[in-house]
Amino acid sequence: MERVDYIVLGAGPAGLAAAHTLKALGETSILVLEKESEAGGLCRSQEVDGKPLDVGGGHFLDLKRTEVLDLLFRYMPRSEWNEFTRISTIKIRGREIDCPLEANLWQLPVTDQLDFLESIAQAGCVRGLPMPETFEEWIVWKLGSRIAEEYMLPYNRKIWSIDLATLGAYWLYKLPDVSFRETLQSCLEQSARGSVPAHGTFLYPKKFGFGEVWKRIGEALGDQLVTGEPVTSIDLEGRIVNGCYQAKRIITSIPWKEWPQLTPLPPAIHRAISQLQHNSVDITYHAETLPSKAHWIYVPDEAVDYHRILCRANFCERARGYWTETNSKRKTTQEATNFHNEYAYPLNTLSKPECIQEIIRWAKSHNIFPIGRWGTWEHMNSDVAVSQGIELGQRLIQNLN
Predict the structure, then answer these.
(1) What DSSP letter does each residue of 189-220 carry, written as one string?
(2) What is the pTM (predicted TM-score) of this model?
(3) Which member of 118, 172, 230, 327 lies 3.0 to 4.6 Å from 35 by CB, making a disulfide possible if both were Cys?
């Protein structure tokens, strides 16, 4: 039996950040278990057609969180990253226009602009109506029925592949309301107006895929990282993992849907976990280079199985080709270069907040601390996951002191 103070389950961004934060604060008794052959989780990369491809989908480093940059730059210095101003586009009405749609309607013919301006003028948020509770209703409330029917509803049906009325709107409260005045002004002035979307400016490695930084961070743990070690059992009473690793505290970033197979659970926790939902995504590489300026393209057309295109040649130096992201339920073909991600996005179902709160309370009562996309069942970017891991590491050490 190997005994340590901390076992971290999963070497994705959150788990790695927690482990390195504990080490930086003087904790040495740490062990990180990772089922894959290298660290990184959904942010891993693999060489395809002579250049890296991110096997978990499009991941980029946002510049807003200084504590995240400080950690990552220790292992991949700033000089090894290229900086980009985000270019994302939408394919709609036979054209490719910049995202977000409401800020770039001026790129469409005037008759199309009028259609969508009318939609925004009728939107519930513009008219001062209260925000609805379901995601499906929120989309119409946010942008009006025309934009909802032609863009947001079909796009979200593709990415989530679930009845949108079963998803909540509680996770969208931070998004700014659409302004009819700003939208009209952008059409008149023929320039984008309004707030900048997430990753307005981002970093991507010059010579590697996004997975390189996580691989280096994992390697820096030395023998404190055990790869090729899937979690097969957890003894809650003794906090014993796989029958041979025992910890005072467990930090978990592995999906809760796996836990019923790992350990006996109280009926209430078993029921809560059974209500959590997620989707799976396939990443497929295509060798041709698209004639687009975009880093990524949103595709709402439901006749096409994929929902997003990542134009690798536009952010990966001297690369060609692109990859598509497709909800696995919609995948219709089997190309030669394809990566399946069983756990891609947690779904924000109406019952999720109560379920995950109950699970986390139970976990903490057993000295198990959930973090990251799958520990908190929250769709978060890698920088948010790292920030969460840093915060947890700091809090655990502070509580001990």
Answers:
(1) HTS--SPPPTTSEEEEESSS-THHHHHHHHHT
(2) 0.94
(3) 230
